[in-house]
Amino acid sequence: VQLQASGGGLVQAGDSLRLSCAASGRTFSSYAMGWFRQAPGKEREFVASINRSGAYTYYADSVKGRFTISRDNAKNMVYLQMNSLKPEDTAVYSCAARDGSITTLMVNYHYWGQGTLVTVSS
Question: Which pLDDT does position 25 carry in this prediction?
Fold first, then answer.
């Protein structure tokens, strides 16, 4: 499966942004999906994940209550709605796919897309 993230940009603290990830290739609904981010000078970290049907989601504590992951299997898309953005949310956000069940572990994702940069100014 090929993945392409989009929707990043420069916003102010408190603003909202929606990231999109378009998938192509094999049956999208067979993949659990995740969003990860890497801030400048830091390691990549887990943000959110969603299972194949969209019924189950996991979030990092740092984004819980502010970010929402969703998917549209008919359109081969996964989204990350980000509200109440903070400067510490500044990072390159990447989507990833796992041929299996939902997980928060980065090493378990098999496919990665190029990231999209989100910059939150204070």
Answer: 75
